[in-house]
Structures are given as C-alpha cells and as structure tokens.
Amino acid sequence: MILADARLQLVLDLVGVFVFALSGGLVAVQRRLDLFGVLVLAVVAGLGGGILRDVLIGATPPRGLTDWRLLAAAALGGLVTFRWHPNLGRRRLLVRSVRVLDAAGLGAFCVSGALTALAQGAAPLTAVIVGTLTAIGGGMLRDVLAGQVPEVLRRELYAVPAALGATAVVVARELGVLGTGVALAAALGVAALRVLAVLLDLNAPSPLRTSAPSRAESRE
Amino acid sequence: MILADARLQLVLDLVGVFVFALSGGLVAVQRRLDLFGVLVLAVVAGLGGGILRDVLIGATPPRGLTDWRLLAAAALGGLVTFRWHPNLGRRRLLVRSVRVLDAAGLGAFCVSGALTALAQGAAPLTAVIVGTLTAIGGGMLRDVLAGQVPEVLRRELYAVPAALGATAVVVARELGVLGTGVALAAALGVAALRVLAVLLDLNAPSPLRTSAPSRAESRE
Amino acid sequence: MILADARLQLVLDLVGVFVFALSGGLVAVQRRLDLFGVLVLAVVAGLGGGILRDVLIGATPPRGLTDWRLLAAAALGGLVTFRWHPNLGRRRLLVRSVRVLDAAGLGAFCVSGALTALAQGAAPLTAVIVGTLTAIGGGMLRDVLAGQVPEVLRRELYAVPAALGATAVVVARELGVLGTGVALAAALGVAALRVLAVLLDLNAPSPLRTSAPSRAESRE
C-alpha cells in the first residue's frame, strides 16, 4: 500500500468497478442483449481495467478474480442495470448516462491504477501508463465486445483526463505529498474534467475540421 | 495435477482445443477468409481460452504456446475445416455446427480450466471464474476477430453452463470427491446443457421481451 | 541478450514500434478520429505486439510500458501521422501506405520477438510462435479497436512471412550461426516477402475461389 489509508484504495476500486459495470450493462441494454449478456458486459467493463492492470504488472491472479467484493460490485452493477435501466425510447439519455458513469469510473481507476502500480514498485512513467490503461481498459473491452468503436478513440477528450490524474498521483508521490486528500482530489478532478468535456462537447483537434457532415456521422 | 488421472486433463484440453479450432475455422469459412485466415482463426479459437487462463493465473509461457500437441490439435482443426467444411449454401447448417462444437468445447474447457486453476493453488471462487473464462475466452476472441458480437453476449444461455461446470469441479474438490468420473460427468453435463439450450432455443430473460421483431434481428 | 550486438535488438524494436505506430495513426485517419484517437491507435499498434509478447513470456511489466524510448517512438509515430498524413482524397494511397508500413514492422517484430523469447529461455517452438504473435499482435489490436477485420485474417499472405522470419532466427540459433547479419537478413527478407505479396496480390488458397465478386467485397 502506498497510501496510509488503505480503505481509500478499496473504495476507489469498488466505485470504479460499480460504475463501469453500470456503463457495461447500459451498453448491453442498448444492444438489446439478454440478462446474461448484460451481466457479462457489466462484469467485463467493471473488472476489465483492473485485470489488465494486474496482468501488465505481473500481479496474478488479478484482484478482480480473487476479491469477492469486486466481483460482487460488478455483478450488482449488471443486475441493477437490468432491473432499472432507463426507458429504451430515451436513447439519448442512455448514451449520456453511459458517458457520465464512464467519467466517474475514469477518475476512480486512473488513481487506483497508478497507486497499485507504484505499490508494486513500478517506475513513475510506468505507473502513469498503467494508471491510464486501468482507467480506459474496461471501457475499451466493453466497446470492442459490443461491436462498437471504443469511446476512447472517438472525437472527444477521454484518455487525457485519465493520464492527467495518474500523473498527478505519481508527481505527488515523487514530491512526498501523496495522501488521501490528494488521491481523492485527483479522482474527482478527472471525473469533473471528463463530465465537462461531455457537457461542453469539447473535442480534441481533428484532421477533418472542414468536413462537418462526417463529424456527426463518426459520432453515430 | 489435481486429478490422479493426469491423462484426463490432457484429453479434455485436446478435445476442447480441437473442437474450438473447428468452430473458429467454420466462422472463418462463413466470413470467406482464405487458408491462412482459417488457420489463424482456428488457432485463436482453439488456444485462446487456455492462453487467457494461463496468463490470468501467471503460468507463463502458456501451455498453448509450449505443448506441440495442443498446437497440432488447433492447426489440425483449421486444416480439417478448410478441407471438408460444409457446403456454404447450407448456411444454417454451418451456424448450427459452430454452436454444437462450441458446446463440446465449453464442457471440456470449463472443467480443464477449473482443474488447472486449482492445481496452481487458486482459491475456490477464483477457480470457478478462471474455469468459466477458459471456456468462453476462445470463442470471444474468435468472434471479436471475425467482427461479430460474441456468442456469449447473444440471447441464449451460454456462460451459465460453463460456470455451473466449473462450480461442480470446485465443489467436488472441496467435498473431496473429485475424480475422473466427476470431472468427465461435469464436462458432458455442460455440453449437454448447452446443446439443449441451442435445440430448445432456451433464452435468458431479456429487457426487451415485448419487441418481437428486434429479437430476430439481434440474432442476425 | 541472445545477440552479441545488443543494439540491433533495440533498433529492430524502435523501427517496429515506429512503423506500426504510423500504420495505426493512418488507420485512425481513415476512420476520421481526432488527435487523441490517432495517438491512442498509434500507441496501441506500435506497442501492442511487444506488450503481448512480454505478457505471454511472463516478462512483466512489459518493456513497452517501461522503456521511454519505445513509448516516445510510438507517440512520435502518431504525431507524425497526424501532422503529415497523406491527403484523404487519395484513399488508395492510404491503404497501400498502411500495408507497406505493416510489412516493415512485421519484419522487425518477428525477429525481435523470437530473439526476446529465446533470451527468456523459451523452447524453439515457443520462440517461433511468440515471434509470430509479436509481429501480428499490434496490427490485430489496431484493427479490432478500429472496428475492422484484422489484416492478418484477410485474403493475403501475412502471418506466413512472420512465421518464416521467426523460424529462421530460431533455426540459426540452433545451428549456432545467429548473428547480427542473419537477424537483419531475416527482418529484411520478411518485409520484402510481404511487400511482394501486396504488390503482386499473391493470395493464399481460398475456400471460395469460384465466387469472384465476393473476393473484391471481402477486401473492402
């Protein structure tokens, strides 16, 4: 443990797993999958990023397959989605819900991923990348399995807030000021930044600025 | 080895690899890929689940990359498919063949995966999940590479029989009654359950029961 | 290190990472992704094969996440593509560029992958497969994330040159003649073979030779 407060890591993990599981379940609902499709996609989205992280840093078997609390959080996310998912008629609401949940998961996971990598003795650069991959991995797996181009590749700021959050954790560690407050602030900051990007429709520069129609199309 | 009869594990692995390789080859034929596309998809489908399992439990390099018998079984599956695949005109037969082969592989791999995880000292819960992932992993990789939504996410009971089979093995282990007979019965039971689900068109509950047309559509 | 000349391994890795990153960036441009989409796909394509290799042989954390030179080469490839990508009107040029870059990466990575596996003590067969997977892994990840059927599964010789190159390295090792010259020749030979296959439109045998129209279609 890098943090004195070991509970924060667990809380971040549980929050990240749960909200990503909700996002996975909602994508499954959008794709009109059945109960088990919803559960599988929820579990993949919820646990995928952390499993990727643990495989990359050699911490096998991954915590997502050994800690029943994380598994339960992922399954709960799937069940909740299945039971109370928003009305399918309101498709725009569904899409927006997935994005806001994604933002919360992004914040929790980039911090938790960087902390885990540092705890395993990873170098600063590696911890930043592993943190970012933890944050974007579950959503990538979710989208690939559901047959859609991953959110992270679409026309909006997505990986950048995650990379910033992981960097903040690593820099704080190097400066010796890493504590519960800093970690929490980093997670919340990332989530806020991402929600802002969704709301304000902030986009990264594109090679195709001139062709307005293709833009809407690539967003589906 | 968890079983006294070490040959059973090998037999289960060889059967699973071979039938999943056949299923991978058939999907490649459906997608009109050439000889090497058929071989690659056969090898990925045949070995993918086991490689995923070994990476998750930290048993690297995975047995699928070191044991020539498994590699040969996967390649053989690809070659057999390429040479004798069913007439393409009979598309429904092709789809059904993939599903029956999948069922056999599912049974063999959920048992073999759980046994391998237990042999590596995994906890019961982890062994159940790793067994399930071993069983569904190869088919998932096959479908993702072939550009289709994985079978496991579609509207039918798929992951559940695999999870039941892995659970049976782990429970038998805990009760001290795990032997060749139990392992074999679990594998056959899973395959039978899955074939039954395909034949009877048993589906899990769906969030969209009312919209009949969308159902046919999501099944392609 | 298997080679006396340790620099060759690094050069092969850097070349492979850079050209695969260019190919990833170009696919992102084709798909009309924004700057970060281009960067992510460039990094995934550039580092994916090597990360897969290191995870499979248990050399974690993968060098692609720890060596800043490889990361920089991947990011540079993305930036270069974003800034100077060929005119989008010339779509055929784009497709062809991706294939030639792929060929260069294939040559560099099958050799570097086999060398790394041998250095980790892998058996000859395993080194051949790991080398091949290193070469085809980045492009597969790139294509799956971009939502297209992987190049390796399409109707042309792709995995075969990579397998031949990895085999050449392993055989040279067994014969005790593995040196810088042999390794370099293998890499160049693979790249040349693949470029030739693209230019001459050499295809592997197909199960559907008779249906000419479907052929053009499956190539998009």
Descriptors:
homotrimer, mainly alpha, 9 helices, disordered C terminus
Secondary structure elements and pairings:
The structure is a homotrimer of 220-residue chains.
Chain A: H1 6-30, H2 35-56, H3 63-66, H4 68-84, H5 91-119, H6 124-145, H7 159-175, H8 180-200, H9 212-218
Descriptive notes:
3 copies of one chain form a homotrimer. By secondary structure, chain A is mainly alpha-helical. Chain A has one domain. Helix content of chain A is 75%, strand content 0%. In chain A, helix 1 (6-30) packs parallel to helix 4 (68-84) and helix 2 runs antiparallel to helix 6. The longest helix of chain A is centred in the middle third of the chain and has 29 residues, at 91-119. Mean pLDDT of chain A is 84; it is low at 208-220. Chains in contact: A-B, A-C, B-C.
Instruction: Characterize the quaternary organization of these chains.
Output: homotrimer
Largest interface: A-B, 30 and 36 residues
The counted number of beta strands of chain A is: 0
Shape of chain A: globular
| Helix count from the secondary structure assignment of chain A | 9
Major beta sheet of chain A, specifics? none
The percentage of residues in β strands of chain A lies in: under 5%
**Low-confidence parts of chain A:** 208-220
Could you report the average pLDDT of chain A, rounded to the nearest whole number?
84
How far is the N terminus from the C terminus of chain A? 42 Å
Output the structural class of chain A: mainly alpha
| H/E topology pattern of chain A | HHHHHHHHH
Give the count of structural domains of chain A: 1
Radius of gyration of chain A: 17 Å
Helix fraction of chain A?
over 70%
